[in-house]
Every structure is written in C-alpha cells, then in structure tokens.
Write a structure and sequence with these properties.
Elements (H helix, E strand, L loop, with lengths): L1 E5 L2 H13 L8 H9 L4 H6 L3 E6 L10 H10 L14 H14 L9 E5 L3 H7 L1 E2 L2 E2 L2 E5 L3 E14 L5 E12 L2 E7 L3 H7 L6 E6 L6 E5 L23 E2 L8 E2 L6 H12 L11 H9 L5 H6 L2
The structure holds zinc ion.
Length: 305
C-alpha cells in the first residue's frame, strides 16, 4: 500500500503545545513534524504522534482495479481512508477548474496542502507511460502559488554569521503564513534592501514557500511618514570591528574574526552541527549556555581555526 502520512492542523497545534510545556523544540510545520515522526528509531515515539494516512495506490497490482478511480473506491471499501476530495476530470478545462476550486477551499481544509496532483486514470495507460528515473510520466503536481501576507516591519536587525557576513533581518509584527507564525524574514543583503526600498515601519508583503525562511517580497509604503532609508552599520553590531567589503563580493563582513563573539559562537555551532562533527547532544542552545556561563570553550577554538 502507498499513500500519504500527514498531521492535521489542529493536531499539529496540540502537539506543539505539549512540546512547549515540556520545553522541547517546536516543529516548524505539520509536514516537518510528520516526516520527523517517521524517522524515529523508537516506534513508540512514532506511535505517540497524531499521524493520519491517506491511501492512494497499491504496489502489487495483480488483480488490481483498472482505473485510479476504482482503485480509490476499493481501498475505501477495504477500510483505508482515502482523500474524499479526489475527483475524475474529463478535460483539461475540468482539471484547471478543479485546481481553482481547491485553491479557494484550501484554507478551510483540516490539513495543509501545497497543490494538487493530476494522475492518468487508466492504470494500463499509467503502465505504458512508465517512469523517467523515479518520476512517473502519468502523474504531475500542480503547485499553488506561495502564500503572500501583509505585515509591518518593526525593526531591521543585523545578524552576524560564522564567516562574519552581515545579514539584515526584518523583525515583523507576527502573522500566520501557511499555518505557521512568522515574526522574522530575511532581507538577504544591503543591495536587496536598496533595490526594494524596504524601511523600518513599512507595511510589507511577505512570502513563505516550502520550508525556507520567509522573505520580504516588497514594501507597500508606510501608514504615516516613512522612516529614512535603512543605513548599514560601518562597524559590527556585535564586536564593534570595522565592516569591510571584499572585492567582487556583495556581502559586507565584520573584520573581527574570532575576536567577534558572533563569529566565534557561530563557528562553534557549525563545528558541532550535523554538517561538521555532528556531536550528539551539543547544539546551538547549549553552546550559548556555556558561553553565557563563561565555561571555557577555548579548547574548541584551538581545533577549529
Ligand atoms: Zn563582529
């Protein structure tokens, strides 16, 4: 049996509420929570999560129904839950109408969707069409446009990364985009802020596509008088070192190196992360804690230049 495992919006809310009470890290969205639940080594954890399942195909197709529609019906008769929104379309126009209809119903659904999938109904036609590597030629996803929402920029803050790159972040009036509360969005770099003329206090349009960090699409101006254009600092907001711009580089950098607390902490976090030494049980939060308590991290610094 094949299908889709998912978590409903209300179950996701409860799950995160429980995790917050237990001081456990929150899941970013239902999709991550469902995927993470399936990757557990301990099946008791998986079983404790509010997972649901829609069946949509059979792997062993011997004596199977001859159409997708009949297949869903028989799966349902056997007691599997199938998606009741599935429908048989007879023309391209039918398909596009179905897409538009689903788009308007999207908000009211108990679970999140990011588009719909069209499948060839006749199973023997599906078999004839076959696959290109792992992608079927008989099924195609039609994604919805990324959800865009209006909010206000409270403040533009500069974060300093592991290599000293200064990244502007917009602190936003919190809004819900695609079922997730968003209070920060990336502004990428100073060129982007200038090009889009984004200022503190502006009403802005933000967008969150998939699991990436939300981004500011454009400014809609301010309610009253606009703030002055944002000016990038000439010194690092963390350590006060000069900000430099390498030749042929867009990014501005703090010149402080490991004298800069932000660069040191980000280096340590990177060092223990799954991209580097993958040290279990030692993550960003703990590094911040050790640093705050002034517990000596110098030995790390020696092995990580
Ligand atoms: Zn610095």
């Amino acid at each position: 049996m094949r299908g889709e495992i998912y978590i409903e919006k209300k179950d996701f809310k409860n799950l995160n509420k429980l995790r917050a009470e237990k001081n456990e890290p929150l899941f970013a969205n239902p999709r991550n929570a469902a995927a993470g639940s399936l990757r557990q080594l301990d099946e008791n954890i998986t079983a404790s999560r509010p997972l649901k399942f829609f069946a949509y195909s059979m792997v062993n197709t011997e004596n199977a129904p001859t159409s997708q529609e009949a297949l869903l019906k028989i799966l349902n008769k056997w007691g599997f839950s199938t998606n009741t929104l599935s429908t048989l379309c007879h023309s391209l126009q039918d398909m596009l109408n179905y897409y538009e209809k689903t788009l308007t119903e999207r908000e009211g659904l108990p679970y999140e969707i990011d588009g719909i999938v069209f499948k060839v109904n006749n199973i023997s036609d599906q078999d004839k069409l076959g696959f290109v590597s792992r992608a079927p030629r008989w099924a195609i996803a039609h994604k919805f446009p990324a959800e865009q929402i209006e909010t206000t920029i409270q403040k533009i803050r500069i974060s300093v990364g592991r290599t000293g790159v200064l990244t502007p972040l917009a602190e936003l009036d919190p809004v819900i985009v695609g079922g997730v509360t968003v209070s920060k969005a990336t502004l990428h770099n100073q060129g982007e802020i200038k090009r889009k003329d984004i200022r503190e206090g502006d009403r802005v349009l933000i967008q969150r596509a998939g699991d990436v960090i939300p981004q500011v699409i454009k400014s809609l101006g301010a309610k009253g008088k606009r703030h002055n254009p944002f000016s990038f600092p000439t010194t690092c907001p963390v350590c006060g070192s000069h900000v430099i711009q390498e030749k042929d580089e867009v990014a501005l950098r703090c010149s402080g190196g490991l004298a800069c607390q932000a660069q040191t902490l980000e280096s340590l976090k990177h060092f223990v992360s799954k991209h580097a030494f993958n040290i279990d049980g030692l993550g960003g939060k703990r590094i911040d804690y050790l640093w705050e308590k002034k517990i000596n991290l110098i030995s790390f610094r020696h092995i990580y230049p």
